[in-house]
Specification:
single chain; three-stranded antiparallel β-sheet; 5 helices; 66% helix
């Protein structure tokens, strides 16, 4: 006898599984640049926000301090990101891209674009629009 009990899908599990697959996909494209997609996200945010405080970066990326620190440490160590005191409030550290960080970002952005295009080709414009809409709605749950 076979069971025909229908199991309700877990949204969280399915999204986490999709996240792992998507992260692996982007990491494969970015591997030639020596960074992971989490680090690329930091570089991309700094590209548009710099200089900005770590707290501003945390808010932009929706991550906690520990998660941001894990992504920032190698970027600082390799000389791609620098931290300096905010002239207006020396207790606040501002982050910005160094010249080599800007160069890395431009190189990595080309690979990121290739990864984006690959996902767009696989899913199609309608599903991408649905995915972005659903993602935005889920992010609003944070409010």
């Amino acid at each position: 006898m076979t069971r025909t009990t229908k199991v309700e899908p877990c949204f969280n599990l399915m999204l986490r599984q999709a996240d792992r697959v998507l992260t692996s996909h982007y990491n494969a494209y970015l591997s030639d640049c020596g960074i992971k997609v989490t680090q690329f996200s930091v570089l991309r945010s700094l590209w548009y926000l710099q200089p900005c405080s770590q707290q501003q970066l945390e808010q932009a990326l929706l991550v906690d301090q520990a998660t941001l620190t894990r992504s920032l440490k190698p970027l600082i160590r390799e000389g791609y990101v620098e931290r300096m005191p905010d002239p207006a409030d020396r207790r606040v550290m501002l982050c910005s891209l160094t010249d080599s960080g800007k160069t890395l970002y431009r190189q990595a952005e080309k690979q990121w674009q290739r990864a984006q295009h690959s996902v767009e080709q696989k899913l199609g414009p309608d599903m991408i629009a649905q995915l972005l809409g659903a993602s935005s709605a889920l992010i609003e749950l944070k409010s």
